[in-house]
Model the fold of this input.
Amino acid sequence: MTAPRPAWAGTVVLAAHGTRSAPGEATLAALAARVRRTRPGRRVELGFLEISSPPLAEVLARVPGPVVVVPLLLAGGYHVHIDLPTIVAAARPDAVLAGPLGPHPLLTSVLARRLASSGLRATDTVVLGAAGSSDPAALADVRAAARLLSVRLARPARAAFASAGSPSVAQVMERVRSGPAPRVAIASYLLAPGFFHDRLERCGADLVSPPLGVDDDLAALVWHRADEAAAAAPAAWRRAGGALTTVPARGA
Done:
C-alpha cells in the first residue's frame, strides 16, 4: 500500500518554451494529454512562452481558477526566473507558479530507459546533452541531473551543452574521442524533438537517445510539481478553491 497523495481542485497550465518543429509541438501536446489522463476529470491546458500557439498569456486569461502553472522546462534560467513570472503576473496574478521539472529522479528514470532502448553498452561513455543557458544556476541544475544519471547507470555521466554553457557538446566529444572509450552515448536531456535535439544528433556520437517525450514518469513529475506548488500556496489561494484534500493512492 502506498501513502495517500495530495490533490487540489483547480487547473494546471503547462508552460512550454515553444518550437518551430511540428514533431516537437506534437510531442508536447501528447505529453499534456498524458498528464490529463493521469488524473481524470482534472483540467490541464498547454501554453507557450514563444513561437508556438496558443500563447501562455492567452491560456492563462481564459482558464478557470485556481491555477497552478507548471513549467515544462528542465532547469532554471531566464525563462523560469524572469520571463515566466512576468507573463503570469500580468495575465493571471492569482496563479501559483511551480518550479521547473528538473533535476529529479523521475527524469533520471526516463533517461535511463531511453538510453537502454537505444542500445547503450556497458563500455559506452555517457554524456548528458542539454540545450544550455547563460544562467549559472541553470547549468548547475543540468550538472545535478548528470550526477543523478551517473548514480543510476553506475558509471560517469558528464553534462554538455548544445548552445550556451560550458563545456559544449563539441568540446566534450573532442575530449572523449582523444581517449580510449570505444563509443560515446548521448542522453538527450530535452523534452521534445527540435533544433537542439537535431544538434545533438549531428555531433558525431555513436548513440543519441530520443528526447524525454511522452512518459508516465514525466506525467507523474508534472503532478508532483503542481502538488508541491499547491501545498505551498498562500491561504488566499486556498480560500479561492485550491484547498488540499487527501485522495487515496492507487492500491490503497
